[in-house]
Amino acid sequence: MFRLANVLLVAVLVAPGVVAQASGKFDNIGRIATPAEVQKWDIDVRPDFKGLPVGSGSVVLGQQVWEAQCASCHGVFGESTEVFTPIAGGTSKDDIKSGRVANLSRDDYPQRTTLMKVATVSTLWDYINRAMPWQSPKSLSVEEVYAVTAFILNLGDIVPDDFVLSDKNMAQVQGMMPNRNGMTTDHGLWDLKGKPDVRNVACMKDCKKEVVITSFLPGSAVDSHGNLIEQNRPIGPTRAMDTSKATKK
């Protein structure tokens, strides 16, 4: 009780000073970041290629970097080593022409690869630049990031073996991405004259009396990696699905 009283007394005595300090400019606390410091973190690359640094990298160099720093997780040909989902595969020359990946509409196709799903080449470049390799992110040079991106595109037959990807031709490559037309604006909200219903008043009538939250494994993923429940640790709150009993839908 004595300790609690002391804590309360200190809080009352200190609080006015804290309020006074909070209303000021926090003199002698921190400083404004320099343009150079901001630039080190302002590295995102948008789909319109804003933020993309000047540079280039070849498929040949990309293969060298890939085999040295990427293949241990993603496989020599982007097929995966059962650590992550495959990078390449599942796309065709017809997909490159149409911009829509046919296998994405098939329930019996066994796996969804990165090149099947990603719609913008800038997404590949940006993610590799900021997050790869996983044990040493941001360690690749600009040339190496261009090169690895070029190698991935080559694995998908999007660019030839002698291709050199650069900031000058990336927009052209974007026009060959297999799923470039696969993005959707189907956000699940009500559509009000072409705009999503995000400011409407909540409806509180005819509500469901019972809501069941559930999840399911897509048919395309059943048995892709064996029986998941056998690979799950028996401790903790998470339980895997018994895929030996699952059926493809």
Q: Which keywords apply here?
A:
two-stranded antiparallel ribbon; mainly alpha; two-stranded antiparallel sheet; disordered N terminus; globular; 2 domains
Domains, number: 2
Total count of strands: 4
> Which stretches are low in confidence, meaning pLDDT under 50 for 5 or more residues running?
1-23
In the CATH hierarchy, the architecture of the largest domain is Orthogonal Bundle
Oligomer: single chain
Q: What is the alpha-carbon Rg in Å?
A: 26 Å
Largest sheet: 2 strands, antiparallel
What's the CATH first level of the largest domain? Answer: Mainly Alpha
By DSSP (H or I, 4+ residues per run), the number of helices equals 9
Question: Distance between the terminal alpha carbons, to the nearest Å?
Answer: 63 Å
Assigned CATH superfamily of the largest domain? Cytochrome c-like domain
Characterise the protein shown here.
By secondary structure, this protein is mainly α. It is 33% helix and 4% strand. It has helices at residues 2-22, 35-41, 59-69, 71-74, 93-98, 114-117, 121-131, 142-155, 170-174, and strands at 56-58, 164-166, 191-192, 195-196. The protein has a two-stranded antiparallel sheet. Strands 3-4 form a two-stranded antiparallel ribbon. β3 and β4 (195-196) form a beta hairpin. α3 crosses α8 and α7 (121-131) crosses α8. The radius of gyration is 26 Å and the shape is globular.
Which helices and strands occur, and which strands form pairs?
Blueprint: H1 2-22, H2 35-41, E1 56-58, H3 59-69, H4 71-74, H5 93-98, H6 114-117, H7 121-131, H8 142-155, E2 164-166, H9 170-174, E3 191-192, E4 195-196
Antiparallel strand pairs: 1-2, 3-4
Helix pairs in contact: 3-8, 7-8
